[in-house]
Write a structure and sequence with these properties.
Blueprint: H1 5-28, E1 33-36, E2 44-49, H2 59-71, E3 76-81, H3 83-89, H4 94-105, E4 110-115, E5 124-127, E6 142-151, E7 160-168, H5 172-188, H6 190-196, E8 200-201, E9 212-213, H7 215-233, E10 238-239, E11 245-247, H8 248-254, H9 256-260, E12 266-268, E13 274-277, H10 282-289, E14 301-310, E15 326-336, H11 341-358, E16 364-370, H12 383-400, E17 404-408, E18 417-423, E19 429-438, H13 440-444, E20 448-450, E21 456-458, E22 460-469, H14 470-481, E23 494-498, H15 504-516, E24 521-523, H16 530-539, E25 544-548, H17 550-555, E26 558-562, E27 568-571, H18 573-580
Parallel strand pairs: 10-14, 16-17, 23-24, 23-25
Antiparallel strand pairs: 1-2, 2-7, 3-4, 4-5, 6-7, 8-9, 11-13, 12-13, 14-15, 15-22, 16-18, 18-19, 19-22, 20-21, 25-26, 26-27
């Protein structure tokens, strides 16, 4: 995604801070070998190889040394050197020599950056493309955040290195605000809350990146998926079902095999046929469309399916629900004529806006994701076609009256797309839903309709995911709401807390009334006291706690405690139903 001037300056400063970090750890830990470290959207990190162990307890002295280097205000100087010079300069560092080899294979020259005047005693040098700020004194307030393990080149076959994460900002206030946000994010971490709320779990016997969903978690998934389906059904979509594996031939025809072969789980049958676990659903859906001749009168054809796809992600890149090996997609594909494309885009856009507003994201930003004109080898089709189709989507957005940004290099390999960006309660921005226009797959699979003149007319295919990956969306949703879901989506909407076993019959009577009205309700049957029952229900972040005791039983009422406001009201069941409906 293209960055503005302010973002580029921040990235330069963070990259320079990362160089100061690796200079500091080299000074403090003799024998440490630097590997690599870039600036990131959140800060920076640096990987290194060290026989000992660096821990977060070492951060104060590392930060002290970093500040000393920053205060020197040493010039940061770029130098272009030959491959041979680079090999001599980094002869004692196998990681730098590995990078030099990669640079040599590309036929490029090596660039290095010096903290200090080049080749003067006390100056520090590292292999780097840059760019950087002019001097270390231009680096703003910084903080080291955490330490973790990371494989060299992200490949688990390589050695495990140590990685230090940090961040830097132009002002102390910006840094403090970010650190406060991190602390709040830790409390909202979906991995932590998912366990506490009993939504999902992971098992070493099953494998990393393969979440197992509990009844409560499955109910939450189904509530969201059913809502998406209701919205789609109203727009004319129909459900289809496909298998989880396919012959290699399908993905060779679609173009996915050439692009993503290394990301596939592959299966060889006893007869020697090569199959793959499906990493996406669109090629399968083309075959449903292609199973019989289609007239222009039949179009559009709109298929929807929620199903799992599988990708061979590297272990080191897996993270809770954010990145998994089995991905549940609420996937849909529309096969239509070019003349129908705009209306179909807008229909999906309507669904997206309705769904996200209901989920607590009332404002979505629009991003037009384009090809990278300097690397067209990554994409199917000609530059001329891409220019035309990108301008078409630009027009769709403008005609809708929406503001948008553009991001070169973010398109799918088969076509440009409109991405929807949501900002969560901590101010973090996430790419969520997407609508994509695709002419290449219909061309590869020879998907046509017969037009008014009796001639074959190639159709266009729309890819549309509302949640996208349900796992990833739930990681965002859990953290956005801190696990306190809106009433309509909460797996348990009300929990009945009888003061003692004497009032269990009345609790059951109330539960039946609520269930018959469609409320998802549980009864706390534990022997705990009322105070503990309330605390337990609050830990589960259940929207309403319903206390029943002698007074409630005699009066035929319930004492309703609201999780959000902590207020308690006594009312009839009918009043409660009116309140929540």
């Amino acid at each position: 995604m293209e960055k503005n001037k302010e973002q580029l300056e921040l990235e330069k400063m963070r990259h320079s801070c990362e160089h100061v970090l690796h200079q500091a750890v080299t000074d403090l830990f003799p024998g440490l070998k630097r590997a690599m470290g870039p600036a990131t959207d959140e800060g920076f990190y640096h990987d290194f190889d060290y026989d000992g162990k660096v821990s977060e307890e070492d951060f104060p002295r590392i930060e002290k040394r970093m500040q000393e280097l920053i205060d020197k205000d040493s010039p940061i100087v770029r130098e272009e050197i030959s491959i041979e010079d680079a090999k001599k300069l980094f002869k004692d560092n196998p990681y730098k020599l590995d990078w030099v080899r990669i640079i040599e294979e590309k036929g490029e020259k090596a660039t290095v950056y010096w903290n200090g005047k080049p080749r003067e005693e006390g100056s520090d040098v590292d292999l780097c493309k840059g760019p950087h700020v002019e001097s270390t004194g231009k680096i703003g307030p910084f903080k080291l955040l955490k330490i973790a393990g990371a494989y060299w080149h992200g490949d688990e076959k390589n050695k495990m290195l140590q990685r230090i994460y940090g961040t830097a900002f132009p002002t102390q206030k910006e840094l403090d605000d970010y650190l406060n946000m991190i602390e709040e994010a830790k409390k909202r971490d979906h991995k932590k809350l998912g366990k506490e709320l009993g939504l999902f779990t992971f098992s070493e016997l099953v494998g990393a990146g393969l979440p197992l969903w509990t009844p409560k978690g499955t109910l939450l998934r189904n509530i969201l998926d059913n809502f998406v389906w209701e919205l789609r059904q109203a727009k004319g979509y129909q459900k289809v079902t496909i298998p989880h594996i396919t012959k290699k031939d399908l993905y060779e025809t679609s173009g996915h095999w050439a692009k993503f072969s290394n990301d596939l789980f592959k299966i060889t049958t006893r007869e020697g046929h090569e199959f793959a676990m499906k990493p996406m659903n669109c090629p399968h859906h083309t075959q449903i469309f292609a199973c019989e001749p289609r007239s222009y009168r039949d179009l559009p054809h709109r298929y929807a399916e929620t199903t799992m796809v599988y990708r061979d992600e590297q272990t080191g890149e897996l993270s809770g629900l954010s990145r998994v090996r089995c991905i549940t997609q609420d996937d849909a594909h529309c096969f239509c004529r070019e003349s129908q494309l705009k209306d179909e885009f807008y229909a999906i856009w309507d669904i997206i806006e309705t769904f996200y507003a209901k989920c607590g994201f009332p404002e979505l930003k629009i991003r037009l994701s384009l090809s990278d004109p300097e690397h067209m080898e990554k994409y199917l089709g000609t530059r001329e076609d891409w220019d035309k189709f990108e301008e078409q989507l630009r027009g769709f957005i403008r005609d809708r009256g929406a503001e948008f940004t553009e991001a070169a290099g973010e398109a799918a390999f088969y076509g440009p797309k409109i991405d929807f960006m949501a900002k969560d309660s901590l101010g973090r921005e996430w790419q969520v839903a997407t609508i994509q226009a695709d002419r290449n797959m219909p061309k590869n699979f020879k998907l046509f309709c017969t037009n008014e003149d009796g001639k074959e007319e190639q159709i266009v295919m729309i890819h549309a995911a509302i949640m996208g990956s349900i796992e990833r969306f739930l990681s965002i949703l859990i953290e956005h709401h801190a696990g306190a879901f809106p009433f309509w989506m909460a797996p348990v909407q009300a929990k009945i807390l009888p003061i003692s076993d004497k009032f269990m019959d009345y609790a059951n009577k109330v539960a039946e009334e609520l269930k018959s009205a469609g409320i998802r309700v549980q009864i706390d049957i534990s022997a705990e006291g009322l105070g503990k029952k309330i605390r337990n229900a609050e830990m589960e972040k259940i929207p309403y706690m319903i206390v029943v005791g002698e007074k409630e039983q005699e009066a035929g009422t319930i004492a309703v405690r609201d999780y959000a406001t902590k207020k308690q009201e006594v009312m009839k069941v009918e009043e409660f139903l009116k309140k929540v409906k």
